[in-house]
Structure formats: C-alpha cells, structure tokens
C-alpha cells in the first residue's frame, strides 16, 4: 500500500470556466473490494462541460474525469477476478453489482453506492453523484472493482477505441435502444457531439436505412458524412423542415436527443432547453420512439427561467400522446453493453475512435477544456494521457 503522503497530478475544478492541474493525495485502497488503477487514458466529456460551466452543484476541488482506462496497480484483498497488471476500462457510473437495479442490468441506477440518490459516477460531480473522485489524474480508486472494471486485452492496441467504452459508445448505443429502433428503420439524431456521433455510428452498425444527424459545428458535421450519415446544419434552416424536405414530407421512424438541457437555438448562442424534444416530437412518425441520452437535470443553477431552474422542461406532451410516441431517457447502463461493444472492437467490426480529435498530455487539460467548451478548432473528443 502506498504511503499516505504520496501525491499525484490531477485535473481539479476551481470555479466556472477554470480547471487546474494540482498535486493532490494519491488514492489508497479503502475497502477490500477496491483496486487502484494507474490511468493511461482518460477523456473529457460533454458531461464535464455542464460542471465546467458552473451549471451543476459541483464543488471547487472536485477531481474531474469519469471515462477512464488504465492498468491495475493495487488490488484489495476481496477482489477475485483482477490482478496487478491487468488492463481495464471502467464504466463512468459506479455501481455495486448487488442491489436490485444492478442485478437487473440497470447499473446506472444502483441504489447502494450513493444512498438517497440513484446512481453515482467517478467524479464528485455534484452531491447527486456520490463521493468518488475522478480519473483525470495519475491514479484512480475503483470501488466494487470486480463488478466495475472490464478486462481488456493486454498491450496498447485499440487504446483510443477501448476508452470510449467508459461512456460514449455504450451511451450512444443505448440512445438508439431507448428509441425502440429496429434494423431497417430511419432515425434522426440531434447533436453531433461525441454522444450523437456514437448514436449515429451505432445506428449504422445496427442496420439503419437512413441516419440524419443535426448540428451546426462544421467539423462535427464532416464526421457525420465520414460514417455515411446525412448531416443537417440547423444554423442554416429549421432542422425538422430540412429532414422532412429530404424525405418528401415523411417523418423518420426514430429519434435521439444527444444534446440535453443546454440545447441552443439556430444562432448557436441562445439556450432553449426544450428545442430538441420539441423537434423530435415533430419529426418522428406516429407510434415511433424517442431516446434521450442527452442530460436533463433536476436543478440548474444557470437556467434562464425559474421553471428550467427546477428542471421543468416545457414540451408538447399532447402531441406526443396524440402520435403515440414512446420516450426513454436516462443515464447509460454501461455494464449492459460494454463487454459486447469491446468484442465488436476486438473483432474489427467497430472502430468508434473516428470520433477522437485530440490526444494530449494531462498537463494540457486546462486549454483543452476551454477549446472543447467553445467547440472550436475541431475539438470533438479529447483524450488525456497522465
Ligand atoms: N445519458 C448518459 O449516460 C450520458 C452520458 C454521456 C453524456 N451524456 C450527455 O449527452 C449530451 C451530449 O454529450 P456530448 O459529449 O456529445 O456533448 P457536446 O456538448 O460535445 O455535444 C452536443 C452537441 O449538440 C449540438 N447542439 C446544441 N444545440 C442543438 C440543437 N438545438 N440541435 C442540434 N444540435 C445541437 C452542439 O453544437 C454540440 O455539438 C450531454 O448532455 C451529455 O451530458 C449523457
Ligand atoms: Zn462522459
Ligand atoms: Zn447496485
């Protein structure tokens, strides 16, 4: 066990729009079921930006980073499936593997790890996400390690693909699942950030006939084209009108909201939290379905109006009812998918790393946050290497 005074470098949240590299305490084994992982790759996520922008109750001093891959460095006495030197990737959500929701595969809704709330993540994201530090750091403590760590082939192959198993590949895949998608159907995905691109890629892998992806960021729309999907630029004209026009007035079968509560109007600046839900209700055919991996929060300190501040989102429920649409939302149950998506990567059938735009040392995290937040210079998916 390392000496308590040992320290390491980590990305620490200071205040809105400011993170810094700090020397912090290195994590220790706290429970027999823990492991300590030496992090080799960790990503910046769109979800980190909600915290970075001060749009959550994340506290100063929080270590960011919930998408983590690395090598097992220490093993608690209760761990049976893992050993020192194993290469592992962790789901962004921490789960116990033993409660009712975990047993039913709903690992994003573990009722044990964060009493009083459902789900926790490895980041002190805000009170609702539990007491776990993040992995944008040299080392990470992983609780309930046998359940939470997925073993990868040793070596360094597919590092950029495997790290996406922590969150966005399963999250994009689940977004398509939540929409009720079946092979051969058409689908419209709002948001061409990492999650939207992974939903689009999943729909392609799963045999969609047509995949439309809406965004306004040039580099992201280019990636949409790269994977054989149809880019829709909502800064040019209303996205729903554009899709309906391309389809001769016919709605799509399924829709995915990969944007969430910080959705923007066509100007790209003004927020309109209901923009995407409203558009999806318009563009999906009667009895079709909508999947919502995009995050909505029960309280938003930076909301433009008092209703949105309490997580009330105004959208045409009457239209949804009339069309008989299904709607599924929530955090991704990464454990349900990551093993199988890993195997698609190993067999060469999936290569989600097309989404990766930058590989940087951990020390460059502060600048990377700033650029990713502004969605400039092609910053789409940033991987940090401690
Ligand atoms: N459900 C989960 O478990 C889970 C996991 C990871 C991320 N997320 C959430 O998914 C969302 C997307 O994550 P990301 O990493 O791709 O983020 P991102 O912020 O990089 O991407 C969002 C994209 O949406 C675009 N956008 C904004 N307004 C739009 C609109 N009205 N129409 C179409 N596009 C619009 C933006 O230009 C941006 O490219 C975030 O809310 C994130 O928190 C959820
Ligand atoms: Zn993430
Ligand atoms: Zn559980």
Set out the fold topology.
Layout (H helix, E strand, L loop, with lengths): L6 E9 L2 E8 L9 E10 L1 H7 L15 E8 L11 E4 L2 E2 L5 H4 L16 E2 L17 E4 L2 H4 L1 E3 L6 H4 L5 H11 L7 E5 L3 H12 L4 E6 L2 H9 L3 E4 L5 H8 L5 E6 L17 H9 E9 L13 H4 L7 H7 L2 E4 L4 H13 L11 E4 L3 H10 L7 E4 L1
Parallel strand pairs: 10-11, 10-13, 11-12, 13-14, 14-15, 16-17
Antiparallel strand pairs: 1-2, 3-4, 3-8, 3-17, 4-5, 5-9, 6-7
Helix pairs in contact: 5-6, 5-12, 8-9
The structure holds nicotinamide-adenine-dinucleotide (NAD) and zinc ion (2 copies).
What does this structure look like?
The chain has 386 residues and is α/β, with parallel strands linked by helices. It has two domains: 7-167 and 333-385, Medium-chain alcohol dehydrogenases, catalytic domain (Quinone Oxidoreductase, Chain A, domain 1, Alpha-Beta Complex), CATH 3.90.180; 168-329, Rossmann fold (3-Layer(aba) Sandwich). Helix content is 26%, strand content 24%. The protein contains 13 helices and 17 strands. The chain has helices spanning 46-52, 100-103, 145-148, 159-162, 168-178, 194-205, 218-226, 239-246, 275-283, 306-309, 317-323, 334-346, 365-374, and strands spanning 7-15, 18-25, 35-44, 68-75, 87-90, 93-94, 120-121, 139-142, 150-152, 186-190, 210-215, 230-233, 252-257, 284-292, 326-329, 358-361, 382-385. Strands 3, 4, 5, 8, 9, 16 and 17 form a seven-stranded mixed beta sheet that branches. Strands 12-11-10-13-14-15 form a six-stranded parallel beta sheet, sandwiched between helices. A two-stranded antiparallel sheet has the order 1-2. Strand 11, helix 7 (218-226) and strand 12 form a beta-alpha-beta unit. Helix 8 packs parallel to helix 9. Mean pLDDT is 93; it is low at 123-128. One zinc ion binds next to helix 2. One of its GO terms (molecular function) is metal ion binding. Residues 194-262 form the Alcohol dehydrogenase-like C-terminal domain. Belongs to the zinc-containing alcohol dehydrogenase family.
